[in-house]
Design brief:
Blueprint lengths: L13 H14 L11 H8 L3 H13 L3 E4 L3 E4 L4 H25 L2 H19 L3 H19 L2 H24 L4 H15 L3 H23 L1
Antiparallel strand pairs: 1-2
Helix pairs in contact: 1-3, 2-3, 4-6, 4-7, 4-9, 5-6, 5-8, 6-7, 7-9, 8-9
Length: 220
């Protein structure tokens, strides 16, 4: 096996290792929307038998990253306007709730973590490191969600994380000036620090909606 990301992967079932590898390739755009997943080719490339590849593909199908087409096999799921609308509507509802709750529960430690998260995001933006941009942006939003303290909201967002990340990555890839996102984060941080829940909610909503508009334009 030559594709373990770390030592922990060496102790996972092969299907899970294959799943993690293919999921990453889909999320970061190495495997393109609509691309066919050929079991034989993947098993040869990853150095495993076809069984864990088949099982890994089934796991990806459950997450909505792969679709099975009649007589055509497994394909990377395309990004459609309807899917985007559904995911972003759910994200908007859940994250605005989290922003409101976060304003009431934010501590000095969490507030400093939020600022530091945006510093790391800004560094990734300045380096034009798309992968780090997506990862650090996710980390920023996760602090708000964790601080809100609602486990059910967190659970629902976790169930959407792959879809949200995929759309987010596509959005950032097309941005001409991603420093706009850094400034939007700063505004959100200030609103939370001042316990202005109405302002924080509105800023989060605008932050998500601006991404939705940009991706819809691309899809059209």
């Amino acid at each position: 096996m030559g594709f373990y990301e770390n030592e922990e992967d060496a102790f996972l079932p092969l299907r899970d290792v294959v799943f993690k590898q293919l999921r990453e390739e889909i999320l970061y755009g190495k495997l393109k929307p609509g691309e066919r997943l050929m079991e034989i080719a993947l098993s040869e490339r990853l150095g495993v038998s076809r069984t864990p590849v088949r099982e890994g593909i089934r796991l990806l199908e459950k997450e909505g990253l792969v679709v099975m087409l009649p007589r055509r096999g497994a394909h990377v799921a395309s990004i459609t306007a309807k899917q985007l609308e559904d995911v972003l509507e759910a994200r908007r509802t859940l994250e605005t709730f989290a922003a409101n709750a976060c304003c009431a529960k934010i501590t000095r430690t969490r507030f400093e973590e939020l600022k530091e998260a945006n510093v790391k995001f800004a560094e990734a933006v300045n380096a034009r490191d798309l992968r780090q941009m997506a990862d650090t942006d996710t980390a920023f939003h996760n602090i708000i969600i964790d601080t809100a303290g609602n486990e059910k909201v967190k659970e629902l967002l976790v169930s959407l994380k792959e879809q949200i990340f995929r759309y987010k990555y596509e959005f950032m890839k097309e941005m001409e000036d991603p420093t706009i996102l850094v400034r939007e984060h700063d505004q959100i941080i200030n609103a939370i620090g001042e316990s202005r829940s109405d302002k924080a909610v509105e800023l989060i909503r605008m932050h998500i909606d601006s991404q939705a508009i940009a991706i819809f334009r691309k899809l059209k």
